[in-house]
Amino acid sequence: MTKIALTIAGLDPSGGAGIIADIKAFAAFGCFPTAAISSITFQNTQGVFGSESQSAAAIRGQVIPILDDYSLDSLKTGMLPTREIIDEVAQIISQRGLKNIVVDPVVRSTSGFDLIDNSALSALIERLFPLADLITPNIPEAERISGVAIDSEQDIRDAADVMREMGARNVLIKGGHFDRSESNEREKKAIDYLFLGDDLLSFTADYHETTATHGTGCTLSAAIAANLALGKDLKESVSIAKRFVNEAIRTAPMIGRGNSPINIKPI
Ligand code: PXL
Predict the structure, then answer these.
(1) Within its chain, how far is the Cα of 13 from the centroid?
(2) Could you give the CA distance from residue 79 to residue 109 in angstroms, rounded to a whole number?
(3) Which end of the chain is less congested by CB atoms within 10 angstroms, N or C?
(4) What is the pTM of this model?
């Protein structure tokens, strides 16, 4: 049985992040990819130079015909730049009873471009967190959402608690952005923290000192959604996706003049 995954996310025309990364990740796990564009961004490996958000009607116009035609096995959301888009996506999820929802709370690009405004961020928290099976903030995102400054593992727990109080059932905080200035164990490891209900699980991978990181967040959440579509549970999906992204970073093609896209391919 072919499993079908949908991404609602931004278009990065240079191919590293957003829906192109999501589609590649879905396909790498054998899922049939579908995609709706929330925003057309203007960017390359060196930075994001602007974006044009789609209207809520354009989101509905793209997504409803897909849902009328296919039975969806999972949904991943990425960059959702406006409150109107977020309200529309939340309404579609509720109305259609969609399952296996991974929300990547995309806040800003690595190069510092704000991909979402404050009003949209509060809509994301209020409307989408309660509908998500998993949210996948990185450390800067977890800090902006929770208001907790993260310098330690305890801070990560505190930030996760705040986000769970906001309505997120399960939270994956990605440790790739941890400050590595002090030499300790974390210096050589990329640790992700999965708060699964009341349990905390950590996933450790070798940290690669590299600039080839463009698209890692998108790819991870899409790979988790793909594995949920295949019927894996959340813990196994995160574990498989983490290894997948780590390998994609390790074998990145080093193209472009900035942060190279990672190598999203079947393993
Ligand atoms: O990694 C965050 C992200 C998500 N989606 C799109 C992006 C970016 C970062 O640049 O461009 C479309």
Answers:
(1) 18
(2) 10
(3) N
(4) 0.96
pLDDT in tens, 210-251: 999 899 999 999 999 999 999 999 999 999 999 999 999 999
Q: How far apart are CA 233 and CA 244, in angstroms?
A: 16
| Known catalytic residue at 31 | no
In order of 30, 127, 143, 144, 209, the CA distances from 74 in angstroms are 13, 18, 27, 27, 32
Q: Which domains does the chain possess?
A: 4-250 (3.40.1190.20)
Neighbours of 68 (CB within 10 A): 8
In this predicted structure, the answer to whether residue 186 has a pLDDT above a threshold of 70 is: no
Ligand 1 neighbour 22 (Cβ under 6 A):
no
Q: Is the CB of 18 under 6 A from ligand 1?
A: yes
Q: Can you tell me the distance from the alpha carbon of 26 to that of 22, in angstroms, rounded to the nearest whole number?
A: 6
What is the DSSP pairing of strand 101-103 with strand 134-135? parallel
d(CA 26, CA 3) in angstroms, rounded, equals 10
Q: Measured from the CB, is residue 38 less than 6 Å from ligand 1? A: no
The helices-and-strands tally (H runs, E runs) of the chain is: 8, 9
Q: What is the DSSP letter of 127?
A: I
| Alpha-carbon distance values, 248 to 31, 86, 109, 179, 229 (Å) | 18, 30, 19, 22, 21
| 219 given a catalytic annotation | no
Q: Which of 34, 45, 136, 213 is catalytic?
A: 213
Handedness of CA 30, 34, 39, 41 (dihedral sign): positive
Q: Tell me the Ramachandran region of residue 197: left when phi exceeds 0, alpha when psi lies from -120 to 50, beta otherwise.
A: left
